[in-house]
Amino acid sequence: MLRLDTVSKRFGGLKVLEDVSLEVPEGEIFGLIGPNGAGKTTVFNLITGLIAPTSGAITLDGTSLVGLPPHKITRRGIARTFQNIRIFKEMSLIENVLVGVHRHIRYGAAGLLFSLPGYRAAERGARERAHELLGWVGLDAKASEIADNLSYGEQRRLEIARALATEPKLLLLDEPVAGMNPAEKTELMEAITAINRRGFTIFMIEHDMRFVMGLCRRIAVLNFGSIITCDRPEAVRADPRVIEAYLGRDDDAPVRGAEAGR
Ligand SMILES: Nc1ncnc2c1ncn2[C@@H]1O[C@H](COP(=O)(O)OP(=O)(O)OP(=O)(O)O)[C@@H](O)[C@H]1O
């Protein structure tokens, strides 16, 4: 579905990514791990059009994404969440999700101004969809609450519902469990599994090894801007190159992380 082909990125003289090639197959939960500063978020920023690659190709279902502005990439079917939660804290949950739905549906200006029947039906459909998406992440009961009142874990799930509101084929999650307690992680794991079963392809960056290894079919490992392996979780965990990449760093190394989770 999503392909990166020998993608490189330089910021001035700094080589952040070098010849990164990977493929996220349709229907999968795919993981990207690597020590701090390896270039993971840069990969997401390139896919979503926030920055342009220095060289290489990025395609979604065979069509190039390079050079498209972020909103066009959203329209092609890619949505994302960010490391730092981006929601409208002073708005209700349903309003937060509706913002995403409204961006997705094109209302005619006349429909909006004169509240034509077509517009009203679309608006009703949008609300129903927003409630449905909140239900998927276990938040529909709190639909009219103000987002600021949610716990941290709930805010992260709200952000996912909001991303889904643009009806993506591919959902990018940047460190979805950062800062969550174990109960919140379990709830999120269930929500992500349920979303994937509904047909959404998921590509996540995650430092929590138990989480990423428990969810992903395949995991790519980035180290100093290069992919050192892409394999099944068991193989990644046992790969000496991966262990070496994490040695002497503060990160949660795959081996230690997996053992800690048992
Ligand atoms: N816009 C930018 N300008 C200059 N350097 C940048 C820019 N964005 C990222 N970098 C540099 O690129 C490198 C990779 O950063 P990136 O955020 O992609 O890493 P990461 O693997 O996501 O790290 P972390 O796990 O800490 O989030 C870092 O050295 C960072 O300072």
From TrEMBL:
The keyword Nucleotide-binding applies. The keyword Electron transport does not apply. GO terms for cellular component: plasma membrane. InterPro entries: AAA+_ATPase, ABC_AA/LPS_Transport, ABC_transporter-like_ATP-bd, ABC_transporter-like_CS, BCA_ABC_TP_C, P-loop_NTPase. Residues 2-249 form the ABC transporter domain. Gene3D superfamilies: P-loop containing nucleotide triphosphate hydrolases. SUPFAM superfamilies: P-loop containing nucleoside triphosphate hydrolases. Keywords: ATP-binding, Nucleotide-binding, Transport. One of its GO terms (molecular function) is ATP binding. Pfam families: ABC_tran, BCA_ABC_TP_C. Belongs to the ABC transporter superfamily. This is ABC transporter ATP-binding protein. It comes from Segnochrobactrum spirostomi.
